[in-house]
């Protein structure tokens, strides 16, 4: 009898401690013992369809900094420009989430560059930046490859090929490639406890490929969809291309002269919110403060980029697709700090410059040579597909040639 009573008492105390929080810790929805807010979050997700809308709804109730709990995992959700920028820029929030889910993709170890932190992240980022720049990352070599690939894609549409465009061939140069450079560093660091290994190489290549390829392809799809939905904007982009470029080959250096096209790209990034939350979940590496709150060590922090891009007070009409918001009265680009699709701070996307160059080249070349139209029997999707990234629902379109492309 005594043991049963003691067990019940301990369980009640455990449940009580499981749901209470410190007065200086962000408040949030009422928690259920053991489960936390899991059931409520899932109910809202089923109703609203997207997690970023769940976080936005809760922010309207509990403020721009609030807490939720998933089972035993304490999580702080951050919305709004000031709080999001503080989380993404402050070293105290520079840790990354860890656990079974994050390690299943990495040989059950903490590997790669996206979901690692500390000295390992610093060492790997330095290596990536050094060797990607050495290999022409966003330099002449990479620009040549981008031009060749964009030309191949446009020619592919013109000739109506059914197969995929053949991958580009390695350009002739005497530079070592990224993999060779990494393998050389493995040999150099064999006797040390450095972060270089063949498993790390595999995972870092996976990180670089997934972080770049998926978001870039989704952004390209979003640009095309917005041009379909806004034929007047497509006409303006084409007129700018005709006036500035004419019939000649488009070059990456032309981007600074095509301000309206650049504004369209910026507005697509803001309006489509391909990555609604910061790509990697932050974790506090020490006890710290956030605005007026005290955040314990090892607390997960979700930063809502979507909340910044859709802030009504700043943008005025965030639901409206309006590229002119990024142009001043003279037609020059306005670099608004509230636009942060590639993140902020030290963890800003490694491939930002390359992604911008590739998307610019592809869209500019496409509009230069084609008019994009909707088949009469096709209805455009009214909502995107849900996932880690917000992707567009596939739709059939017409690419009507404006000029005949000459094969090389």
Automatic annotation (TrEMBL):
Origin superkingdom: Eukaryota
Annotated GO biological process: organic acid metabolic process; xenobiotic metabolic process
GO terms of molecular function: heme binding; iron ion binding; oxidoreductase activity, acting on paired donors, with incorporation or reduction of molecular oxygen, reduced flavin or flavoprotein as one donor, and incorporation of one atom of oxygen; steroid hydroxylase activity
Keywords: Heme, Iron, Metal-binding, Monooxygenase, Oxidoreductase
Needed co-factor(s): heme
Keyword Zinc: no
Binding residue positions for heme: 349
GO cellular component terms attached to this protein's record: cytoplasm
Similarity-based family: Belongs to the cytochrome P450 family.
Protein name: Cytochrome P450
């Amino acid at each position: 009898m005594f043991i049963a009573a003691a067990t019940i008492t301990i369980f009640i105390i455990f449940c009580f401690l499981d749901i209470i929080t410190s007065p200086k810790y962000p408040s949030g929805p009422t928690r259920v013992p053991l489960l936390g807010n899991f059931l409520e979050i899932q109910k809202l997700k089923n109703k609203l369809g997207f997690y970023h809308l769940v976080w936005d709804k809760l922010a309207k109730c509990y403020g721009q900094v609030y807490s939720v709990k998933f089972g035993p995992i304490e999580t702080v959700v951050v919305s709004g420009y000031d709080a999001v920028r503080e989380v993404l820029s402050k070293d105290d929030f520079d840790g990354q989430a860890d656990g079974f889910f994050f390690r299943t993709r990495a040989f059950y170890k903490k590997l790669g560059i996206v979901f690692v932190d500390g000295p390992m992240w610093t060492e790997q980022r330095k290596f990536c930046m050094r060797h990607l720049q050495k290999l022409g990352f966003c330099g002449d070599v990479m620009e040549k490859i981008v031009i060749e690939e964009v030309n191949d894609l446009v020619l592919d549409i013109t000739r109506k090929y059914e197969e995929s465009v053949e991958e580009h061939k390695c350009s002739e140069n005497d530079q070592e490639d990224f993999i060779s450079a990494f393998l050389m560093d493995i040999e150099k660091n064999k006797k040390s406890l450095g972060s270089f290994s063949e498993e790390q190489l595999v995972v870092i290549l996976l990180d670089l490929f997934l972080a770049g390829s998926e978001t870039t392809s989704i952004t390209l799809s979003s640009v095309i969809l917005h041009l379909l939905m806004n034929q007047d904007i497509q006409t303006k982009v084409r007129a700018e291309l005709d006036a500035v470029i004419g019939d000649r080959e488009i070059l990456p250096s032309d981007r600074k002269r095509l301000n309206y096209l650049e504004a369209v790209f910026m507005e697509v990034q803001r309006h489509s919110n391909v990555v609604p939350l910061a790509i990697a979940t932050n974790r506090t590496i020490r006890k710290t403060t956030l605005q007026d709150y005290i955040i314990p060590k090892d607390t997960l922090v979700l930063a809502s980029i979507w909340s910044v891009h859709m802030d009504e007070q700043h943008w005025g009409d965030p639901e409206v697709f309006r590229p002119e918001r990024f142009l001043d009265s003279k037609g020059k680009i306005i670099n608004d700090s509230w636009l942060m699709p590639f993140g902020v701070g030290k963890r800003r996307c490694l491939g930002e410059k390359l992604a911008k160059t590739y998307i610019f080249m592809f869209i500019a070349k496409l509009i230069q040579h084609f008019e994009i139209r909707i088949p009469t029997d096709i209805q455009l999707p009214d909502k995107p597909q849900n996932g880690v990234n917000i992707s567009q629902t596939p739709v059939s379109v017409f690419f009507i040639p404006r000029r005949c492309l000459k094969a090389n």
